[in-house]
Amino acid sequence: MSKSVVIVGGGTAGWMTAAYLKKAAPSVNVTLIESANIRTVGVGEATFSTIKLFFDFLGLEEQDWMPSCNATYKLAIKFANWRADGNHFYHPFQRYEMVDGYNMGEWWLKLKQHEMPFDQACFTIPAMCENKLSPRFLDGRVFDDKVQDFFAGSRRPKNSFLAEHKVQYPYAYQFDASLLADFLKGYATRRGVRQVIDEVDEVKLREDGSIDHLVTHGHGTLSGDLFVDCTGFRGLLINQALGEPFIDFRDALLCDRAIALQVPKDIEVHGINPYTTATAMNAGWAWDIPLYGRIGTGYVYSSAFLSEEEAEREFRTHLGPDAHGIRANHIKIRTGRCRNSWVKNCVAIGLSSGFVEPLESTGIFFIQHGIEELISHLPGSTIDEEMVRSYNRVVADAIDGVRDFLILHYYASERMDTEFWQAVKQIPLPEELKERLDIWKHRLPNAKNINPNYHGFESYSYSVMLMGLGYMPERSLPALDHMDDTNALLAFRALRERTERLVATLPTQLDYLTQVRAEMFVAA
Ligand code: FAD
Fold first, then answer.
1. Were 32 and a residue from 1, 7, 174, 239 both cysteine, which residue would form a disulfide, CB within 3.0 to 4.6 Å?
2. Who contacts 482 (Cβ-Cβ below 8 Å, separation ≥6)?
3. For residue 157, what pLDDT band results from cuts at 50, 70 and 90?
């Protein structure tokens, strides 16, 4: 059994790993070393709906951590300007309903495509987003009865592992990343994680190439059985010390730079959007992540098409007067993954392991996935090479799967109006994705024809993105021509009525969160 684990890095990856590891394996000694001088990346505020399982596993209720991290609910990503007509659509955290064996997307193609946008017809969440609603009623009940029933009445969440993720939570969170790292630091150190504030100057290797110890600036040497590299894009242990190659994705995903800004927002005036917005721009796209009291915003772009100055100018024009006088943080993005994220006695988690641009908010999901797999592959008295190989396979599959899903976003978009948007259409597609895209021209994605390796996205996400971007079959499934439409029409009507009821009865996200914060501060 690995008795002592040393984590290097105190960003989101480092503290998520420390907190989870200590909870999952309390007898392991965990030390985390973080530098007071080397900054964290300072972004990473929108998440994926599986993040709920991470907090459930730690035993944390929303009221325990959300107010301290200025967190908000995220029900969807709103994609704006990705169509030639400039229209928007929502990619919700909500599966399709099934009618007579076929999902509502298939039925929409047959019955509703000339009446209503597919996202509004097939899901309740888009209307909730447009009305800035909370996914919870004021008494705390979740709007989706299936989720409410599944989680209610049990003290231990029924699916707090990705591997057992049967019921999808209908929302994720948006939070201040540095406040979350502080919160998790408190959680982890109270449970016995040792924090060392110092810098690692040198990584000493054994003859077999594994890590023997770390040499720190002011705390002497640090030894352990297992070392976790959470040093961000530097990859201090995995790449610099162990020399593990990094597989660059820039030939597939062109964006390699970001500009980030934090803009104050008067929530009393504007409310709080329960979604992240991804707006297509001249050479990439801009994110808008609403927190309680400010917006985190940024422009992810390709330096092959824009200089830093041009990108900042375009971005500030997009933001308008709200961003006047606010300093912009320019970030170089390392897009790709380590050939192997686990080498010898070193496991990379977070940006050091791999990263694709944050278009679907998957950075923190990769961390959660890496940690959960680390626990399930935790070594005994020696490190088993087959277990290491197994870990590396599932981690690589998840990152590669998301890469291919993002390639699809650019490929399927109708935009061709700038050199960047023309260039993304020329990117050679991975062979399997190419075959799938050919199929999806004739039928919508389903569980049997999407990438079968676990990468967080289900078939409804593929379907929603393709329909939203305008890449869809020219006609509905021939099988539906032979079927009676009655049940499908009833299902569309029931969904519309349910949506209207939710819009009439749910509180706004601002009202709900303000109530939760008031209760928390009174209790404190
Ligand atoms: P970092 O935050 O870079 O932390 C590195 C740590 O290592 C720091 O504590 C540093 O002090 C320490 N360190 C480095 N060298 C040493 C040393 N020699 N000695 C001691 N300590 C050292 N993810 C999402 O899920 N959603 C998003 O919306 C999202 N948006 C993003 C936008 C951009 C532009 C980028 C670049 C990333 C985004 N991500 C997003 C990813 C997310 O930011 C990261 O996954 C997350 O912040 C984890 O970062 P990290 O902890 O791996 O690295």
1. 7
2. none
3. low
